[in-house]
Amino acid sequence: MAKRDYYEVLGVSKTATLDEIKKAYRKLAIANHPDRNQGDAAAEERFKEATEAYDVLSDEKKRGMYDQFGFAGVDPSAGGHDYSNVYRDFSDIFGGGGFEDIFSSFFGGGGRSQGRGAQRGPEAGASLRYEVEISFKDAVFGTKVEVSYAHQVACDVCGGSGSQGGSGTKVCPTCSGSGQVRRSSGFFAIASTCPTCNGSGQVIENPCASCHGNGLKRKQQKVKVTIPAGVDTGSRVVLRGMGDAGPNGGPSGDLYVYINVREHKFFVRQEYDLFCQVPISITQASLGAEIQVPTIDGQSIKLTIPSGVQHGKMLRVRGRGVTRLNSTDRGDMYIKLMIAVPKRLSSKAKKLMQELSDTLGEDTNPTPVPFTQG
Description:
By secondary structure, the chain is an alpha+beta fold. It contains ten helices and 15 strands.
């Protein structure tokens, strides 16, 4: 099979700059690397082809010979074909961390290669999520709830060490304590987390029979959670250190308690203000009145209805809304007046209403007014 032109392989023009050549090769190398395309012979060939093209075009002298004499000018049989130029430019092509850092994200490596004996510090345990549902009133004034959940705790037999009878650990025989294993693929060296010790560099000589060397056990726990006044659906309470214990003595994660608030039969909430609708009669709206209105506290307050009030009028009662978070202040309560028209009238009521209509002089040709939603 005839070889393709190197510029065609990298997808660049013959006037491409070195930066453009590096960028083109980087894209092809990452996409076609054999470790990322195991068993794909075509990808491996594309990778080799791109590497060969880059080796020539990134070297000013080789590129000049190629431009003048073609493949004959860079025939590897004339003196061997090494990849020293490719090695030299890795830090430029793949960033300051080198090519190894790029591929570690694809092949399970732990980032930059660590020296022999380097070990990871104890990892923190996982944080957990728990959801509780509380009443509307409890959200306004706060409450306490008990939650029951399962989490990982240190094994009570081995104290979290994972070893039986204090037998301790030894250097991992697979990675010799580095926490990483390296494998070569052509001229690349890829580092990945050691599968034997999971990157710790140590293995337990005699695993604990109770936790099987894990150092952790699952435990059911109950805890009282204080829900502050003023929370709403989506609010959360964080209990530090109440999540899963960390392996190898690592710190515990947190417990996040997320809150869902049940709807109220009458009240709705906007931030720290409460809203409700109260029906009044035609005569109360016309003449004015004093009525008793319930509050979220479970009490009633006296509300004065001004005479001639219109349907949908909003009246405010200060300080009867939701308690503000981390404060004793409260929002306001808004009462929307809904004029209720009687569906049935006695003969006496009809007569009185007719007399009222005659007295007021009804407008049988009303002028439309602007539409409002309420």
